[in-house]
Write a structure and sequence with these properties.
About 30% of the residues lie in helices and about 15% in strands. It has about 180 residues and is of the alpha+beta class. Bound molecules: FE2/S2 (inorganic) cluster (FES) (2 copies).
Length: about 180
Amino acid sequence: MSEPIAVEMAVNGRARAIRVAAHHTLLDVLRDDLGLTGTKECCLVGECGACTVLVDGRSVDSCLVLAAEMDGASITTVEGLAREGELSPLQQAFLDTGAAQCGFCIPGQLVAAHALLQATPRPLRAEVEEGLAGNLCRCAGYEQIIEAVLLAARAEPGSAGRPRQAPDGPDVAAMPDAKVAPQ
Ligand code: FES
Ligand code: FES
């Protein structure tokens, strides 16, 4: 068996210096070594998005990357979205819309949605659908999840509570019936 590998990374803003087995994934290390069990383990082949975390601001399936590759990286898990014990506006919006049913997919959905809103603070509905396309919900709560992301976007300072307009159409953020079928 190969020797453990020294890795230094920031996890939710906290510097962590750990030794990891060469074959352990970032998901293994987050859950088993660091006790951050908010990140969920499900398909382990990059299909479901339950294990989504941010690596240097990018949304990543943590089951697909080796922890040994994370030296120097900054990781954000769902535990890092709240600030000083307060839910983020996005987390609150998930509660307000009843987006969490069994809740298993929600940490990954939240992290993916957080990344989306960082890149696109006022997304169109289609952009939310695309941004969350890699995150499956077995309870089929897609409508409420998308509603939550749009609600959080409208709550952002500067948006004045108004959704963005599609260039060639009506207020798509307010349309209730767009198809949502992440694969
Ligand atoms: S557990 Fe990683 S994508 Fe499903
Ligand atoms: S809320 Fe149950 S899997 Fe999404």
